[in-house]
Amino acid sequence: MMKNLAMFLIVGFGLLKVADKDASVLRLKPSVPLAHSVPRTLFEEDGRLVIAYPAVDKQSGSRKLRISLFNPKDGSEVKGRFYDAPVEDSTQSSSVLLASKDNRALYYVNLKGAPIILMIDANSLDLLGRSETKYFGTNDYLPHAEITTQQELVLVAGSQVPGQAVHIVSVDASDVSKKVADFTVPAKPGWGTQYKLTSDGKAIWVGGGKHWRKTRLSDGQLEGTIDAVNDIHELLPIPSGVIGLTDLAQAGFLQSFSDDGHQLQTKAMNGCGFVSGRIAPNPGYGVAVCESTGTSEWTFGKRGSGRAIVFNVPSLNTVGTVSVSQRDKGYSPAIWITEKDILVSESDSQGSVRVWHLAR
Length: 360
Hints:
The protein has strands spanning 7-11, 24-27, 40-43, 49-56, 63-70, 77-83, 96-99, 105-110, 116-121, 127-131, 140-148, 152-159, 164-172, 175-186, 194-197, 203-216, 222-232, 234-238, 241-247, 251-258, 263-270, 273-279, 285-293, 303-312, 318-324, 334-337, 341-347, 353-359. It is mainly β. β22 and β23 (285-293) form a beta hairpin. The termini are close together.
């Protein structure tokens, strides 16, 4: 059995809260204060927490992108650097922070407005590469970086061009200024408009509701079909298939599917719907945010309190739960697995980041 919350850390100026009498508390101390925006977070392979956020560079007096590394054992900032890159104050930021497959590089990507892709050394934070190429046009919507493979950083956007469903662009994982591929996935009647690449980037799931189809990108061959028990509002790719998230006003479901779409497991959550999720880079666990939705006359449609549900991927069994604050919709907590515990990092619109250590 997993113990209750074992550690709670906070970045910023919010109040520290102890989850139980045995919890120890650390305060992370960034050398540059966080602004009121949602920081992007991920864990490096040694468990260090990476935070990307807009901040004021005192030397220039201007707002810039800052990326910092924190030691999860004592909460200290290991190092941090400023980068000349467009930054946003909005809690609906389109920026994404990803790690390379070998964990040697970080990618900061923001394709909204003036596009920017930065490739950064994961240890030294030195800038390794930069691209400001505009790959998506007015007929593309919600462009973002979705996955990294051994060779590529994959960018995707929905397409409004008749007959096209998804626009995919790949850049070289070792040289982000070099485009590797640029193509569209054709739309077919009844497919739906939602999509998600498989974890290896070789196929794509397209659909909506209970029905999804998996197509191989190299030749368009159909590789799988999902006919789910419950509607799926978001897919989380895993090496062996996908996990579907269901977001209803007062109920949520986790549903796992095999590589060809066969339904394997289903777990229900009462009182909240699953709005976003993330799978740990080192497999075995995932985290999904479950939020309640108001149904009364005064609260109808409004999002209420949220919980981050840590679950075992094969069984979908819950192994821990932590509270989450107001976030931009769709952005999920980061998760990392060590031999002894599970790290979960969650950021909110007030510019704070909380990290929990849960014993395995």
